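Dear colleagues,

As part of the handover before I leave the project, I'm documenting each prediction I ran so the next person doesn't have to rerun anything. This entry is a single chain, and its sequence is reproduced below.
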Amino acid sequence: STRLMTEGYINGGIYAMTAIVIYVFIVFRNLRTVLFILVPVFAGSIWTLGIMDLAGLKLNMANLVILPLILGIGVVNGIHITHRYREEKDKNQVVLSKSTGQAVILSSLTTMIGFGSMMVADHYGVYSLGLVLSLGVFCCLIASITFLPALLKLSTAKNWKV
């Protein structure tokens, strides 16, 4: 049953990522834009796994569910920032200096607080779920406010359509 549950979570992550990529492509109709939106999610996910390894946290049946959750939450930041970039007339304007940057940060922080509240549980599975989800959202936030604006700035310099 453990193997089946693990495969189910992994398949859920794959299905979630596939659905997200298709949806984002339909909305933006540009493969480069889809890749830009997904870069913070991939970077944040890699950072999350790296920090988990450094901290000695292992993926278990309780926190394996983070995969589809972090994908969904991490993509939202990229979508909001990219939408704001597309709305700007002056593409040299820093996209995070507007209310969108504040909203992305506030939204991620409140999500982290919500997931972090599970860390007060006595049950290790619930505790680790809250810890890993908070860490994952934090890593995706940092990647979203660093990598994505840099990529958008590069696209302006190279005259790439985003």
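The first helix runs from residue 2 to 28. Helices lie at 2-28, 31-55, 66-87, 99-116, 124-157.

All the best with the project,
I.
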